[in-house]
Amino acid sequence: MPIEMHANLTMKSLLDQYPGARRALFSAFHIGGCQSCAYELEQTLEEVCKNHSIDLDVAIRCLADSHEHDSSMLISPTELKALLDKNEPFILLDTRTREEFEAITLPGAQLMTQELQTSLFAEKKNNQKVILIDHQGRSVLDHCAWFRGHGLLHTFGVEGGLDRYAKEADPSIARYRLEMD
Description:
Elements: H1 11-17, H2 21-29, H3 45-51, H4 56-71, E1 74-75, H5 77-86, E2 91-94, H6 98-103, E3 109-111, H7 114-123, E4 130-133, H8 140-149, E5 155-158, H9 161-168
Parallel strand pairs: 1-5, 2-3, 2-4, 4-5
């Protein structure tokens, strides 16, 4: 469960706990998208708001509303497990890299390719449920918004991605860590 938003919350903590916060702050206040509106991760939410002449309470309300909206696009790992166990009809798209997908794949998952995405957008079956999963849930909200914006309104992302799914729903799935340069 995310921590409570407050004035002294660092931007790092805010972004770690609320993955959509960066997008919300940029779209509502033009904060954090470019060098002229950047902030440091060690700054508090109050400092960032003060530096950009934004009312702190308005920013917190915006972030809370955005988080509520984002949460409506997510399902838990256990909800995905229940869908898989029931064999309900849905499309499970894996948004990770081909290498990650080939190393570890959930049963029934398809690798999201440009061709598959284009095909789904063209078909736009009104009630088609689409579940998106990434590695740790960091980009799944952006993908959900993209799919919903293209008419696939029953698109959901798995909260915490494959990593959380392996921890909470199916420990037989191998977990891994990506090494970054």
